[in-house]
Amino acid sequence: MSTSCKTVLASTVSASFREQIKKDIKERQIRPKLVGFLANEDPAAKKYAEWTSKTCAETGVEFELRKVDKQDLEEKITEANEEKEVNGIMVYYPVFGGKQDLYLQSCVSELKDVEGLCHKFVYNVYHNIRYLDEGETMKCIIPCTPLAIVKILEYIGVYNSVLPYGNRLYGRTITVVNRSEIVGRPLAAMLANDGAKVFSVDVNGIQLFTRGTGIRLQAHKVEDIDAKLEDVVPQSDVVITGVPTPKYKLPTSLLKDGVIAINFSSFANFEDDVKSRASIFVPSVGKVTVAMLERNLLRLHDYQNNVLEKKQN
Ligand code: NAD
């Protein structure tokens, strides 16, 4: 039984990213602009928008919230795609829900898609394509919450920096309880692309994501497996939950001693005694998500202005 669990707060992980963004903006005397479209009546979306606005103001990003009728949203996105002073666009989903929202995600110009949800960025995550160009000067934009969770895992040390880039999760077993298109599925793919064995759990069953063997892409492979939560959680070094209901509680008794437990749901998905088993517990990730949103914005601002990165060797 774990005796000294450390709670890692999202505010702690996000602090260095926020400082870096603030410094960068100040030193370069730029003012990147993010436009958020609110087309639903969801109080959670409104709260997230207010929070984004406050965080952006603190780091020097200009944030403009545009409240629009959902029937006008596509046209408003198209207009914002054309506005030179707008560097990034985000939409508070769900708007219509389902396939119409998928369509709207692909209406955002690639060069302004801070959330990384357009088809090309999502495709690149699934195919382990990390750059937009042959010269490897433009990194792909990664969806904010999966990216936030990756950054938290790096902060904690789950990524082994002794191993080469692209294989730093080799030897780790990770369970992700959520397979949504926004968070759980891209997250499982990214973790597998970096070498982890990932059990992806949703209401319908469990899939195993592992690193592929393709010579060029090394993209992950996925197989349906006949297993239960009780089979996969006890094997896992890291357990990540994102079930959107207050009723869901992952039983502490299933957790391996010393596990790293991360919850990204807006509800507490672990039982109150999770710290009796976990070595590290991350109760929420939201502040890191917003930091990643700003980081993606800066990156797109630079791509729009032809400020490219040096090729990584
Ligand atoms: P979603 O409804 O699209 O997906 C929920 C997923 O959980 C699905 O894969 C579903 O099958 C799975 N699930 C539901 N009940 C389950 C059960 N009993 N056992 C196993 N799996 C189950 O939701 P979403 O958009 O992925 O959001 C999930 C949660 O994460 C919400 O609480 C949301 O507020 C939160 N969220 C947080 C952030 C952040 O940055 N903090 C970002 C996005 C979403």
What attributes characterize this protein structure?
single chain, 35% helix, 8-stranded mixed beta sheet, binds nicotinamide-adenine-dinucleotide, 17% strand, 313 residues
List the topology elements.
Layout: E1 6-7, H1 10-28, E2 33-38, H2 43-59, E3 62-67, H3 73-82, E4 88-91, H4 98-105, H5 119-126, H6 144-156, E5 173-177, H7 184-193, E6 197-202, E7 205-210, E8 221-225, H8 229-232, E9 238-241, E10 259-263, E11 278-282, H9 286-304
Parallel strand pairs: 1-11, 2-3, 2-4, 5-6, 5-9, 9-10, 10-11
Antiparallel strand pairs: 6-7, 7-8
Helix pairs in contact: 1-9, 6-7, 6-9
The chain binds nicotinamide-adenine-dinucleotide (NAD).
Residues 145, 177-180, 182-184, 201-203, 242-244, 248, 264-267, 285-286, 289 line the site of nicotinamide-adenine-dinucleotide (NAD).
Walk me through this protein's architecture.
The chain has 313 residues and is of the alpha/beta class. The protein is 35% helix and 17% strand. Helix 1 (10-28) packs parallel to helix 9, helix 6 packs across helix 7 and helix 6 (144-156) packs across helix 9 (286-304). The protein starts with 5 loop residues before the first strand and ends in a 9-residue tail after the last helix. Residues 145, 177-180, 182-184, 201-203, 242-244, 248, 264-267, 285-286, 289 line the site of nicotinamide-adenine-dinucleotide (NAD).
